[in-house]
C-alpha cells in the first residue's frame, strides 16, 4: 500500500508590530501638566495594543485562508499558544508567530492579517518581519505563492516597497548569498536570502532588516510647519520595548530514526501524553506547560509555554519515506550546545539544519557566531555528524547563523 506524501517542512512567519502615532501638540507651548496628560494618554493607548485581544473567531477565519484550523489551545500571562491542524500559532502582545506545514498558504493571509491587527489593536506598523523555510521535499505540490521562493519574495515585496532602483542595481538581483534572481523593478524594505545550497539543502529567509528605534525617546519621522491656527503635528514612531532581548533556535531534521518515529504513531502510543513521555520530549526544556496532539494514524505536534514567556514547539512527520521533525524555541541561553545535543539525542536525525537568531540585548548574542565557528554546539555528538555548510549573517538588529 502506498503512503500518501506529506510535506513536513514549515513556512515560518514571525511579525513584530508597533504603531505610528500622530501626536497633535504644540511643542513650544507644552506645559508640564500637558506633558503629564500626554504621557497618561500614551500609556492608556499602549495598554490596548495587544494582539491577544483579537477574538478567536477572527483567527479562525484568517486561518481558513491559510488552509488550516485550530485543534488545541493553551495560554499563560505572556503568550496564547494554538496547535493547528498544520503546526502552530503563538500570539503575544506584539509578536505573532505562524508556523504551518503541508500545502498551507500563510502568505495569502498577510493582507487580511495586517487589516485585522490594525482594526483590533491599533498596531499600524510592521516593525519587523521574518519569513523563512527550508527547501521543500516536493515543491511542485505547493500552492501559489509558495511554489518557489522568488514567488514568495515578489509577494512580500509588494507589502514593503522601498525606493525605485536603477537598472544596474536591479540586475544585482534580490536574493543574497545565492543564485541571483531578479524579481521586481522596485526595491524593498525587505531583503531575501538563501543560506546553504539550492542544489542540496538550503534555508530561505525574507526579513525587513530595519534599524530599531532608540528605546528612550520616540523617533520623529515627519514634522509639519507650525502656524497660529494649526498646531504642528509631530509624527512619531512608537516602538514599545523595542530593545527587548529576543532569540530563536530552530532545528529542522530529516532522515530520522525509524524506531524513534514509531513512537509518534497510534500503533505504538494511544495518546499524545504517552508519546511525549516515551520520546523524552517532556525533558527537552524545563518548566514548560505542554499542549500536545497525536494525529490519526500518525504525526505529532506540541506547544510548550513557560511562565517566563518562552515557548517551544515540535512537529513530527514520522513516515520513513519523508520523515521530518522541527524543533523551535525562543528560550534564552548563553550557549545552545546542551539544547541542540538533547534534541539530536531525542530524535536521532540523519541530517539536520540549525538556525540561531539573536539580537544584541539577548544573552544568546554570541550564539550565532559560536554556532558558525565551532562544532562544540553538538557537544558529545560532534563526532557523529559532518558539517556541510555554515553561514553567518549580521543584520541591523539580529545576528543569524
Ligand atoms: N523565525 C525568525 C526568528 C527571528 C527572531 N525571533
Strand content: 25-35%
What small molecules does the structure contain?
1,4-diaminobutane
Radius of gyration of CA atoms, rounded to a whole number = 22 Å
SS class: alpha+beta
* Unreliable spans: 163-172, 178-186, 214-241
| Average pLDDT | 86
Give the number of DSSP strands.
Answer: 21
Work out the helicity level.
10-25%
Amino-to-carboxy terminus distance = 41 Å
Count, helices: 9
Shape: globular
Reported for the largest beta sheet, the result is:
11 strands, mixed
**Order of helix and strand elements from N to C terminus:** EHHEEEEHEHEHEEEEEEEHHEEEEHEHEE
Task: Tell me about this structure.
This protein is an alpha+beta fold and 401 residues long. The chain has nine helices and 21 strands. Mean pLDDT is 86; it is low at 163-172, 178-186 and 214-241. It binds 1,4-diaminobutane (PUT). 1,4-diaminobutane binds at residues 12, 14, 130, 132, 246, 248, 357.
Topology:
Blueprint: E1 11-24, H1 32-48, H2 56-66, E2 70-75, E3 79-84, E4 87-92, E5 95-100, H3 110-121, E6 125-134, H4 149-159, E7 161-164, H5 167-171, E8 175-176, E9 186-188, E10 191-196, E11 202-207, E12 219-223, E13 233-238, E14 247-256, H6 258-262, H7 272-279, E15 289-294, E16 300-305, E17 311-317, E18 324-329, H8 337-347, E19 349-359, H9 367-373, E20 393-394, E21 398-400
Parallel strand pairs: 8-10
Antiparallel strand pairs: 1-5, 1-6, 1-13, 2-3, 3-4, 4-5, 6-11, 7-9, 10-11, 12-13, 14-18, 14-19, 15-16, 16-17, 17-18, 19-21, 20-21
Bound molecules: 1,4-diaminobutane (PUT).
Amino acid at each position: 500500500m502506498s503512503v500518501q506524501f506529506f510535506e513536513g517542512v514549515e513556512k515560518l512567519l514571525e511579525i513584530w508590530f508597533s504603531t505610528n502615532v500622530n501626536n497633535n501638540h504644540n511643542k513650544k507651548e507644552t506645559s508640564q501638566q500637558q506633558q503629564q496628560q500626554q504621557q497618561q494618554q500614551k500609556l492608556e493607548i499602549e495598554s490596548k495594543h495587544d494582539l491577544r485581544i483579537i477574538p478567536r473567531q477572527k483567527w479562525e477565519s484568517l486561518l481558513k485562508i491559510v488552509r488550516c484550523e485550530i485543534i488545541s489551545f493553551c495560554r499563560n500571562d505572556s503568550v496564547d499558544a494554538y496547535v493547528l491542524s498544520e503546526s502552530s500559532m503563538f500570539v503575544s502582545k506584539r509578536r505573532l508567530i505562524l508556523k504551518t506545514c503541508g500545502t498551507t498558504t500563510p502568505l495569502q493571509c498577510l493582507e487580511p492579517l495586517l487589516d485585522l491587527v490594525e482594526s483590533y489593536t491599533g498596531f499600524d506598523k510592521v516593525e519587523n518581519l521574518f519569513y523563512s523555510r527550508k527547501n521543500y521535499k516536493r515543491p511542485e505540490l505547493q500552492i501559489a505563492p509558495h511554489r518557489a521562493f522568488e514567488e514568495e519574495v515578489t509577494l512580500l515585496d509588494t507589502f514593503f516597497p522601498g525606493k525605485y532602483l536603477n537598472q544596474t542595481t536591479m540586475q544585482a538581483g534580490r536574493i543574497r548569498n545565492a543564485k541571483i534572481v531578479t524579481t521586481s523593478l522596485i526595491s524593498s524594505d525587505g531583503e531575501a536570502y538563501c543560506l546553504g545550497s539550492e542544489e542540496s539543502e538550503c534555508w530561505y529567509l525574507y526579513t525587513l532588516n530595519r534599524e530599531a528605534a532608540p528605546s528612550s525617546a520616540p523617533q520623529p519621522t515627519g514634522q509639519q510647519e507650525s502656524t497660529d491656527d494649526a498646531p504642528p503635528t509631530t509624527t512619531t514612531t512608537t516602538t514599545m520595548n523595542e530593545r527587548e532581548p529576543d532569540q530563536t533556535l530552530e532545528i529542522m531534521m530529516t532522515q530520522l530514526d525509524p524506531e524513534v518515529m514509531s513512537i509518534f504513531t497510534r500503533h505504538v502510543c494511544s495518546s499524545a501524553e504517552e508519546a511525549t513521555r516515551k520520546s523524552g520530549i517532556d525533558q527537552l526544556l524545563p518548566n514548560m506547560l505542554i499542549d500536545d496532539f497525536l494525529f490519526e494514524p500518525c504525526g505529532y505536534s506540541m506547544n510548550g509555554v513557560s511562565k517566563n514567556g518562552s515557548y517551544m514547539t515540535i512537529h513530527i512527520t514520522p513516515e520513513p519515506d519523508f520523515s521530518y521533525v522541527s524543533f523551535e524555541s525562543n528560550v534564552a541561553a548563553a550557549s545552545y550546545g546542551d539544547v541542540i545535543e538533547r534534541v539530536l539525542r531525542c530524535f536521532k536525525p540523519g541530517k539536520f539544519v540549525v538556525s540561531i537568531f539573536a539580537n544584541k540585548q539577548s544573552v544568546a548574542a554570541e550564539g550565532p557566531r559560536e554556532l558558525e565557528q565551532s562544532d562544540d554546539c553538538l557537544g558529545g555528538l560532534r563526532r557523529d555528524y559532518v558539517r556541510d555548510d555554515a553561514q553567518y549573517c549580521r543584520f541591523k538588529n539580529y545576528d543569524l547563523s
